[in-house]
């Protein structure tokens, strides 16, 4: 009998079953469910279920992060309604304006653990695969049902194994690996699959970098994404975990619907051209393309390492275009302020924002004017994604974002380093 993939093992555990196979329909009880500013809308759907209250308030987390501080009266009203509802329902984990982006905060708070099932009302919930968890996004109606019942049915996804070999060259990051996967296999290449990473590259990546890979797999159509937790991850988790956990690993003889291999040592920085995260070319093909704004942040690349490499590029220089920097969390903000990273960015001309999502979804703090091009460390560059339909968005790693801000055009960061 063939072995089991990570997804098969983890969803069987969440369903209280001894075994499961890809294609099975299971009623799962997730270890954590979470939402953000959209909780105001979910709350209205929840009211229609007739449930007397949230079934497992100790398994619910809510973070205000998408439009913070509130930019309009409507946003402020939504935030106020969420606060009232959190108090009324006894929700255990609530994070106020300024604490940061849900995905970053939940990891920092030890609320997502290896081997667990985490369902979030946000498409980038695949993020939690860096911790060895099954993270998946669900819709608002599904989240309302989870609040009411604590359960949700899921089809166990088929799995794809992506084996990464080699060490990325200087200036090349996990973002470039992700973009290359999207460019090679397309935006639907991982559609409803469990994307399970393997290979010696993973151990060469920092913890900050590892989170980028599963986060970006949301753009690949993945149901979830997974990195096997090693000692470095387990040490990070053990310092934060709020409950006992058991890591799960795929069997050596697990069956995969597809196998992909990528030599990352051969990569140069990659750029996603406007319109799709899968419209990817090597940086050398678009170097010199003018930009009017650079954006560093988001759940994909707003961590401390991302801010530090940008500061390394910009020390002793001034930006030629607007550079907006938004740390992914208050913890990242504090660490970057303590070690001089923020001071270096401000000295270069960067504008620093409140921890949160910023302009990523197009409604707050850094929306471009029509025809202004932005180079961004975010995960999406669909038309209008940053709030302006006629403002093109290029996706790149933080090194490239910083170098491009300094040059006023898409630039190779390797030309800015000693």
Could you provide a short overview of the structure?
By secondary structure, this protein is of the alpha/beta class. It folds into two domains: 6-17 and 24-262, 2-Layer Sandwich (Aconitase, domain 3), CATH 3.30.499.10; 271-415, Aconitase, domain 3.
Structure report:
The protein has 418 residues and is α/β, with parallel strands linked by helices. It folds into two domains: 6-17 and 24-262, 2-Layer Sandwich (Aconitase, domain 3); 271-415, Aconitase, domain 3 (2-Layer Sandwich). It contains 14 helices and 18 strands. The chain has helices at 6-15, 39-49, 73-89, 102-108, 140-149, 174-185, 201-204, 207-216, 231-238, 298-301, 304-314, 330-338, 341-347, 398-407, and strands spanning 25-28, 32-35, 60-63, 93-95, 117-120, 134-137, 152-155, 158-165, 193-198, 224-226, 258-263, 270-272, 280-282, 293-296, 322-325, 351-352, 374-376, 393-395. The strands form five sheets. Strands 4-3-2-5-6 form a five-stranded parallel β-sheet, sandwiched between helices. It has a five-stranded parallel β-sheet with strand order 16-15-14-17-18, with helices on one face. Strands 10-9-8-11 form a four-stranded parallel β-sheet, covered by helices on one side. Strand 2 (32-35), helix 2 (39-49) and strand 3 (60-63) form a beta-alpha-beta unit. Helix 2 (39-49) packs across helix 5 (140-149), helix 11 (304-314) packs across helix 13 and helix 11 runs parallel beside helix 14 (398-407). The longest helix is centred in the N-terminal third of the chain and has 17 residues, at 73-89. The protein starts with 5 loop residues before the first helix and ends in an 11-residue tail after the last helix.
